Amino acid sequence: MEAQKQFGNRKVTADPVIQIHHLFKKFGDHIVLSDFDLKLKKEENLVVLGKSGSGKSVLVKCIVGLIKPDRGKIQVLGEDIFRLEEDELNKLRTKLGFLFQSNALYDSMTIRENLRFPLLKHRFPMSEAEIEARIIEVLEHVGLKHTIDMMPAELSGGMAKRIALARAMVLRPEVIFYDEPTSGLDPVTSREIATLILEMKEKYHISAIIISHDMACVKITADRIVLLLEGRCYAQGTYEELKHSKDRNITQFFN
Ligand SMILES: Nc1ncnc2c1ncn2[C@@H]1O[C@H](COP(=O)(O)OP(=O)(O)OP(=O)(O)O)[C@@H](O)[C@H]1O
């Protein structure tokens, strides 16, 4: 394996919010992550690009402590996650938001109840009035305040994605993981969701790891792209930097 391709020349200005060193994970004889390194900077949208089965989900599961790697170190918001007790890990997870491919909204709850649920579950010390104000604020940010009393079944695919995003933001996480945020959406709606992801960073100063194959979404959202290949960070750079690479392992994603 050749050395990682580094495109561009930029400075790291603040402590990274996620730092991964020499991560190694295999299942049986199948090596999924091999000496994988990654840094997510504050207020950065980092896209992890990789073919199907390249280990993107395994990587995210390692970062949030759902899978224990065989070797390596992961620091999230300054915490070495494998040194944390279960309750400390759970506390750290409240600072992490997730936008799942499936949206994972509760079908039997109204939109308000869907957004209230994470605040109650994590026992956020908020009054009823503060909870209602927070719900309205995030719904306004995704442009769907009028859906507050609707049921998820009444929403279009794009609206459901926006509500799922609002639900992730209701806890004001410091880092958010977007799993294929535009999958199954038409190109126009995909572009709207990608633009919203960008707006979330600006409004909430949030850092994000985005897993996506949708290059239109990648182009809009990515401050930086990391290409995961054969378990390693094969290349990294901006969309434009990687797009103009001559390396076929890189260009195949852009063509
Ligand atoms: N719990 C597990 N046990 C055994 N193998 C696993 C497990 N989880 C993932 N794998 C394997 O690890 C590899 C990487 O899987 P992963 O789901 O991370 O890929 P991915 O890049 O997210 O793919 P996709 O883009 O299709 O979602 C796959 O070969 C998968 O079969």
UniProtKB/TrEMBL annotation:
Gene3D superfamilies noted in UniProt: P-loop containing nucleotide triphosphate hydrolases
Native organism: Pedobacter gandavensis
PROSITE patterns the record matches: ABC_TRANSPORTER_1, ABC_TRANSPORTER_2
Entry keyword set: ATP-binding, Nucleotide-binding, Transport
Domain of life: Bacteria
UniProt-recorded name of the protein: ATP-binding cassette domain-containing protein
Pfam families according to UniProt: ABC_tran
InterPro entries for the chain: AAA+_ATPase (IPR003593), ABC_transporter-like_ATP-bd (IPR003439), ABC_transporter-like_CS (IPR017871), P-loop_NTPase (IPR027417)
Lineage: Bacteria, Pseudomonadati, Bacteroidota, Sphingobacteriia, Sphingobacteriales
Domain ABC transporter, first and last residues per copy: 18-255
GO molecular-function terms, A-Z: ATP binding
